[in-house]
Amino acid sequence: MIMASSNPRRRNGWRRSQLRKRVLAAYDVCAICGKPVDKTLKTPHPMSAEVDELVPVSRGGDPLAFSNCRLVHRRCNRLKSNKTDAYARAQLEHKPQPPLTSLPFTTLDLSTSGEW
């Protein structure tokens, strides 16, 4: 019995492999940081080439559409995860970002009410 892959990127391995080759041939610069990608570096090197989806697969993006894919560094792709490019760029520049689930912090002035 053959089990189907749960990873949508691997459901059609041949097609994804062809798409990866096409993306590697079409682009030379990381779409997130804007620096050149050395395509000779192999995974798991942090600056190796990876194919990233503009609309993440976890958010309904098509992993087999060329229009949804671009070239990025492995490190940049890991920082981005399923978030925006702006989020990844802020991480690369070490700009503090509030957690995505945080609420605005407000204070109450208890000195005027006289009650707790």
- Tell me the radius of gyration: 20 Å
Order of neighbouring strands in the sheet with most strands? 1-2
Query: Total number of helical segments?
Result: 3
Structural class: alpha+beta
Biggest β-sheet, characterized? 2 strands, antiparallel
Strand content: 5-15%
Distance from N terminus to C terminus (CA atoms, Å) equals 67 Å
Q: Give the total of beta strands.
A: 2
Mean pLDDT, all residues: 82
Oligomer: single chain
- Residue runs with pLDDT of under 50 for 5 or more positions: none
Shape: globular
Topology:
Elements: H1 13-26, E1 49-53, E2 69-73, H2 74-80, H3 85-92
Antiparallel strand pairs: 1-2
Helix pairs in contact: 2-3
Can you offer a commentary on this structure?
With 116 residues, the protein is of the alpha+beta class. It contains three helices and two strands. The chain has a two-stranded antiparallel sheet. Helix 2 (74-80) crosses helix 3. It starts with 12 loop residues before the first helix and ends in a 24-residue tail after the last helix. The relative contact order is 0.15. The mean pLDDT is 82.
